[in-house]
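Dear H.,

Thanks for agreeing to be a second pair of eyes. The structure we're designing against is below in token form, covering all 990 positions.
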């Protein structure tokens, strides 16, 4: 009595997905691979593939977010024919597709982004000069009209004199470029004469002054020299320059093709200009040529201070796009809109919208562009398409109601549901254990503030410089503010940004919500309190600028400058929060690392059942189709890893004793680095929790163990570099990193004398089992709560992955397909389910139990999609001795009702007994009150095929938990009328 491979046919893919499944495309997982798993995903109950970016990205990209061409598929992922077959397979199974798109930035450097190469060649005269967020008038005179290119591995002069910067002529295109490893930097055609005319008399002497080829080269040289300059060119001059330079390049290529003498002459010129290693003066001419370009080549370290284009966080080769520019919007979305019009994709996931200049305007333009299109019937939806945005909400922050989107990508749900399995009553104990282990107090709000300040001063100082310079210009324009120095403005901005409690505000067109005004006011007030400045009136000035409070008598240019500053400020704060909080503070504060997840708040220790219900009711009211995630490609730890670590909150006394023993036993495995034992106590504490979460569910054989050890070493190395306490990406401490890797290798060495390994394995056995119960519960909650549930690739069975790239390892789909097919084959027997449920429970380690719960629930959700998309959410009252260990709610629509029951805090529930959270001995008198309008309906347990009879008491009806959870540790219960309908469907499908 189970669901068949394909649901009842849908004539079209729905606008709102039933459930999505995230696929990570790259050269190791292609369109052909995805086509092969579509039937499996359909059988699992998935309605939409949720695809990572697959537009043309930097070669070798493992993630697809470094797009270099928005109007082509990534050839490493597959051909157009491969893509068509993937889409056709989706449609054959009545499935749709959500595509992850990247409007905020593009991959630059290298030699494959045509827009970026054009900017390097032509500077401000490029037709793409305003496509990227470049400050063409930075405070440094040497960068005026140029783009800083921080790509060199060493200082510029050393790289130059080592001969690593090589001038090159492409004879087929007539283009000169500077080559550096895989990077190409075009030469400004206006300065081609420096190359072409040098030593020209030698060619004249060889060919003669009247020779046609000599005269042609002279003519080409003159034409290049008369091109309009890069700076302050009018639109007409830009057109002339872009037209004429290409004509002259073609003439030069043609001349090289027909004249061996000219080609040899130019080859010799290039060789001489490239200098001779060991003769520094021989590089003078090449240096002067490079100085004349529209870019400044620099060592990568220079970026932190001087880079003058907006980046994606602090990644130099991801340059921010000005999507607010209509031409940029049109060109970067044209191909995607065509895919939507053709019905090949059915929705969008918008990556990092907080990086956009005006996210609200972008969402409106996106919705209008799609809704107004007449290119295809699939875009006729009056409410637009399904769009979710990667917006991270903090604290009580709410998504802007005016945005025409379906919701977020679900980070807030991941943290919400994870919090249910953290024992709130143990917060103080957990803090004491952590503090005693690391031997110093850690206050997370203060830590987060300091990490944001450090991010501004180190990783994003160049972005801060741009803001401060813009603010300085505004201040200098008025006699009332002209005495504010650049230093005072910079210092105040640091304090304000570090004090902002949200990723960003959303001021636009001088409109600011009361909530955003409050965020700014509080950040300014906090910054003022923390500042040691002698003149605090600078904060009043910045406050007025951020709120765009102008007097009305300022020049329009000044009003525009204030607006630009305030809007740019918002883009910077989101990057600071992401790098300072997520990528630094979250790797420094290790009280319970399961709480250190994107969008999470490690200060908040757990979530009550009441809070969980309230959040679900709010989502149903405001964002009923928001995505529900528990693992994503950005997760620092997978859902199953966090589910295990959560258990530690329930056993603080046991945990305290264990980590004390491990610390003592492993002390001798450390070595001194800079006079201190390495790894640090804090990193060691993080490591033990990581092992709790990532430990293999089945002990690997000897050949697999080194791979696990290496995974832990790689994760720990990334974590400590992100934390930037003992080492970092920019300044790696090789001694500390070696000590960390050696420590991990030593404590995980499989030998009889390793006391830690045996003790940890014994401890982990119980943690692992309890973590599985947590994971089963959170999976069922995700699949039945208001919103659209998403399954991250591979997580339909146990997956103990850590942060990327660990969570992008290949998924064994063959195994998953085999497991599901075995269930389907066995499930055709009507008496299979009760025995199967018990058997799955007794063999949880193999992961089938998670797949079973996922499969059964998704198929049920697909059959009753309206119930889960539109049905009411009713928290159910639980009473009895174990009431605090249950979360129960009902989804109701008309005559339909589904009741969800899951255990929480199973370590507390079960005590020291190694048993399952099922049966009367565990649940005793615990019972759940049924909603009044559903009290006359009989019930059916979806997972066990058991009929549940409600008990009556004082005019009310109850479900007795010991009967409901008799043989399976979670329940999805439907009314008997619904069961009869689904039963007919199942028999028909078989």
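And this is the sequence the design step returned. I haven't edited it by hand at all.
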């Amino acid at each position: 009595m189970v669901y068949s491979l394909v649901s009842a046919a849908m004539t079209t893919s729905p606008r709102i997905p039933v459930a999505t499944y995230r696929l990570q495309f790259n050269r190791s997982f292609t369109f052909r691979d995805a086509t092969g798993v579509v039937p499996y995903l359909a059988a699992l109950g998935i309605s939409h593939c949720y695809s990572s970016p697959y537009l043309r990205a930097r070669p070798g990209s493992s993630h697809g977010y470094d797009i270099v061409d928005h109007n082509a598929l990534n050839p490493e992922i597959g051909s157009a024919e491969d893509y068509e077959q993937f889409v056709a397979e989706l449609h054959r199974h009545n499935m749709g597709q959500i595509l992850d798109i990247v409007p905020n930035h593009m991959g630059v450097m290298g030699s494959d982004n045509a827009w970026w190469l054009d900017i390097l060649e032509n500077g401000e005269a490029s037709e793409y000069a305003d496509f990227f967020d470049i400050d063409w008038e930075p405070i440094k005179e040497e960068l005026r009209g140029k783009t800083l290119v921080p790509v060199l591995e060493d200082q510029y002069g050393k790289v130059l004199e080592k001969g690593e910067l090589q001038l090159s002529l492409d004879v087929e295109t007539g283009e000169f470029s500077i080559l550096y490893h895989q990077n190409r930097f075009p030469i400004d055609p206006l300065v081609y004469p420096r190359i072409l005319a040098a030593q020209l008399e030698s060619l004249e002497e060889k060919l003669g002054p009247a020779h046609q080829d000599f005269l042609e080269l002279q003519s080409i040289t003159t034409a290049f020299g008369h091109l309009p300059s890069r700076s302050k060119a009018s639109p007409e001059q830009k057109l002339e320059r872009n037209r004429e330079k290409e004509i002259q390049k073609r003439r030069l290529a043609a001349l090289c093709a027909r004249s061996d003498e000219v080609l040899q002459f130019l080859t010799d010129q290039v060789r001489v200009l490239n200098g001779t290693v060991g003769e520094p003066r021989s590089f003078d001419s090449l240096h002067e040529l490079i100085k004349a370009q529209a870019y400044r080549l620099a060592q990568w370290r220079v970026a932190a201070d001087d880079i003058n284009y907006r980046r994606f966080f602090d990644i130099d080769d991801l340059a921010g796009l000005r999507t607010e520019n209509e031409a940029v919007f049109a060109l970067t979305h044209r191909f995607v809109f065509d895919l939507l019009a053709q019905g090949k994709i059915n929705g969008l996931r918008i990556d990092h919208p907080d990086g956009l200049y005006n996210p609200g305007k972008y969402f409106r333009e996106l919705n209008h562009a799609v809704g107004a299109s007449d290119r295809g019937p699939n875009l006729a939806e009056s409410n637009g398409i399904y769009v979710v945005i990667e917006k991270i909400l903090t604290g009580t922050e709410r998504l802007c109601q005016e945005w025409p989107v379906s919701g977020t990508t679900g980070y807030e749900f991941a943290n919400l549901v994870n919090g249910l399995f953290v024992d709130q009553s143990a917060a103080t104990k957990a803090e004491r254990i952590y503090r005693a282990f690391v031997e110093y107090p850690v206050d997370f709000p203060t830590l987060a503030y300091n990490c944001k300040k450090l991010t501004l001063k180190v990783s994003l100082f160049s972005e801060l410089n741009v803001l401060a310079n813009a603010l300085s210009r505004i201040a200098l324009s008025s006699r009332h503010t002209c005495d504010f120095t650049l230093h005072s403005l910079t210092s105040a901005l640091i304090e304000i940004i570090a004090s902002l409690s949200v990723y960003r505000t959303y001021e636009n067109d001088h409109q600011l919500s009361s909530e955003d005004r409050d965020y700014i006011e509080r950040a300014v007030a906090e910054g003022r309190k923390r500042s040691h400045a002698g003149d605090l009136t600078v904060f009043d000035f910045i406050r007025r600028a951020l709120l765009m409070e102008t007097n009305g008598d300022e020049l329009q240019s000044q009003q525009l400058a204030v607006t630009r500053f305030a809007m740019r400020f918002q883009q910077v704060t989101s990057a600071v929060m992401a790098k300072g909080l997520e990528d630094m503070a979250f790797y420094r504060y290790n009280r319970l690392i399961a709480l250190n997840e994107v969008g999470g708040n490690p200060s908040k220790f757990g979530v009550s059942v009441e809070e969980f219900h309230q959040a679900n009711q709010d989502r149903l009211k405001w964002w009923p189709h928001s995505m529900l995630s528990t693992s994503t490609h950005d997760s620092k730890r997978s859902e199953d890893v966090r589910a295990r670590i959560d258990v530690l909150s329930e056993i603080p006394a046991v945990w305290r004793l264990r980590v004390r023993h491990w610390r003592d036993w492993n002390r001798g495995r450390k070595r001194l680095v800079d006079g201190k034992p390495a790894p640090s106590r804090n990193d060691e504490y993080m490591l033990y929790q990581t092992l709790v979460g990532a430990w293999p569910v089945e002990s690997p054989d000897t050949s697999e163990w080194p791979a696990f050890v290496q995974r832990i070493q790689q994760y720990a190395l990334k974590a400590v570099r992100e934390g930037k306490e003992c080492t970092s990406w920019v300044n790696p401490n090789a001694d500390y990193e070696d000590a960390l890797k050696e420590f991990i290798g030593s404590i995980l060495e499989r030998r009889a004398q390793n006391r830690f390994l045996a003790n940890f394995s014994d401890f982990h056995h119980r943690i692992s089992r309890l973590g599985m119960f947590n994971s089963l519960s959170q999976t069922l909650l995700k699949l039945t709560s208001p919103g659209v549930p998403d399954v991250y690739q591979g997580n339909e069975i146990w997956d103990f992955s850590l942060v990327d790239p660990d969570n992008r390892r290949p998924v064994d789909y063959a195994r998953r397909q085999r497991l599901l097919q075995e269930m389907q084959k066995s499930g055709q027997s009507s008496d299979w389910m009760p025995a199967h449920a018990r058997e799955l429970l007794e063999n949880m380690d193999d992961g089938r139990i998670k797949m079973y719960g996922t499969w059964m629930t998704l198929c049920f959700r697909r059959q009753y999609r309206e119930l889960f998309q539109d049905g009411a959410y009713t928290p159910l009252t639980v009473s009895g001795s174990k009431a605090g260990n249950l979360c129960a709610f009902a989804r109701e629509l008309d005559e339909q009702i589904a009741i969800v029951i899951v255990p929480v805090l199973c370590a507390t529930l079960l005590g020291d007994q190694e048993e399952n959270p099922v049966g009367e001995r565990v649940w005793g008198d615990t019972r759940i009150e049924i909603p009044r309008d559903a009290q006359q309906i009989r019930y059916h347990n979806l997972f066990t095929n058991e009929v549940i009879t409600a008990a009556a008491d004082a005019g009310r009806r109850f479900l007795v938990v010991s009967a409901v959870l008799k043989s399976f540790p979670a329940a999805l219960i439907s009314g008997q009328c619904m069961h009869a309908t689904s039963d007919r469907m199942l028999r028909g499908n078989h």
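Two observations from my side: The two ends are 9 Å apart (CA to CA). The mean pLDDT is 92.

Warmly,
E.
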